[in-house]
Amino acid sequence: MSEMIKVGMADLKICKYPDKLTTLGLGSCVGIALYDSATKISGLAHIMLPDSTQIRNNSNIAKFADTGIVELIRQMTAAGASKSRLTAKIAGGAQMFAMKDNSDFMRVGDRNVEAVKAVLAKEGIRIIAQDTGLNYGRTVELDSATGEYLIKSVGKPVKVI
Description:
The protein is of the alpha+beta class and 161 residues long. It is 19% helix and 34% strand. The protein is globular.
């Protein structure tokens, strides 16, 4: 029997086969799914903001792309995953509200996606699929058996990347 493990907002979790990870309501947030196909160890982070150095109260490392991804990798390798085998799939980073002012402050989704890509590149982890941007929220599920990343959005067909 597999268990569905919920990852909250500004949270991260890992699991092993046959369990699955899910996070609900990715708007401008990004869900980073990491997977080691040999050990079937999976990790999912639900990051809210790109950069912990810009925020005073930054004690929740899972909230930020720069610290959350590094911690996710640390937990996965501690559980037996090999960093060299990890691949990434990302979803979210939507622009949830129509804005006349396209200032950087309002482009949180785009900034989150850019930050996630930069951190993954710095860590040497390849992004093999993504479903980011646009203007709608996403709920995701990561299957540790296959590494499939299921994306559900209201009024849209289910996508598997």
